[in-house]
């Protein structure tokens, strides 16, 4: 058997895949456009400052890409094989754990790594402009590659220990938090200790720390800490990959109670905690089936609404902390704007993640075809989908709307001075909250019928409805400010940018939400069958 046979096969397959090459273009073009915007925004600065700021902006975006893309690529690679029953077949051969794990790593990370490579030439342009040294450029490149590999390894371990996609993504985030725990402890020491001392050794496992030290002003005085951090993260990467290789051959079996009593008991306890015990499941199933069959299918996890309430309690605690500890007035403009932005954005993102999951999972596993062969109508499926979302989010959303309306009304009556009108910002935010939720809901349903997997449906939904308006808004805002600066005229006031953001959001919701509503209502079966026919043709 050749060395790492699955890696060789996956690299050969990837070299013939069209997506492998288009990914470089998809990443490089936005990087070029962002670099141009950063260049124009700093056009009044000196050449050295302009190059330094452009390099910093592009490097930060590349760092965010590495932290997200790697974990997203590998988060469900092994757990998906477990659900489909193909992982065990691989271990019936002479393949070892590292063969399978590294093969899945090569298969899932190739496009993402090519995307990272496509950023490096754009990142090197400020180097030619001056203001960025060769050492600084190559140190940043080293940190980016190191962070990308570390992110891949975190996703691999989470996937090796999971079977369900949601569980894999949850463990993915949990492992990242655990690895970052020393850095979090260092932050608490700085905040709570009387001397505000910084323990650098606790930050070695944090990729952001090595990224900051890669720049010349910090590297010249803390080079030892930089290389120690890079080495620590690299060793963690190999350790996580070894753990995934050891765990994968031992976790793919469905052990019966007799031979795997501990594992089975743990799974039963987790199932009872998430779905309830047998009596609770029967009562819940009977109650929801009387309303809508797909409603029960999509809302079986009884603790989903609890997560939203926990988030709102956390935000209320944060609000209280800002008022008591940091002495913010309860109607302070900055506190209001930041809190509204955080709550509304997270709720919209949460709904965008939840909406396509059930339908996309059923589509991928072939269960949607069975659903469409039952007496359930398309209207029943769509109504059940919205009932499940209503059960999870409706009452928390009503509380959020009521609180924001109360604060807007109280701010108007109290006459709190503000450069930004709380009422205007609050009103536009509430309207966009409702419009975005409607657009995200219908867009998620439509994309779930055609996407390859739930992750792809979520990413497309978030990009189209939530991110695209902000990209256009930033581009127009930078252009307006550059034109105003070059023409020596005063830039528009805050109301121009507020209503620009509002109308871009509304137009995006209409442009994507209405066609998605039409497709989901009138072309549901056609889109579902089209996706099924494409899958069969591929196999």
- Structurally, the number of domains stands at 3
| Total number of strands | 0
**Terminal CA distance:** 26 Å
| Weakly predicted, low-confidence segments | 256-264
* Rg (C-alpha, Å): 25 Å
Q: Which bin fits the share of residues in helices?
A: over 70%
Briefly note the structural class of the backbone: mainly alpha
Commentary on this structure:
The chain has 539 residues and is mostly helical. The chain folds into 3 domains: 5-254, no CATH class; 256-290, no CATH class; 302-538, no CATH class. It has helices spanning 5-15, 18-41, 47-74, 77-84, 87-91, 97-129, 134-160, 165-179, 181-192, 207-213, 216-219, 223-247, 261-275, 278-289, 293-298, 304-324, 333-354, 357-365, 367-372, 378-414, 422-448, 454-486, 494-522, 524-538. The radius of gyration is 25 Å and the shape is globular. The chain starts with a helix and ends with a helix. Mean pLDDT is 82; it is low at 256-264.
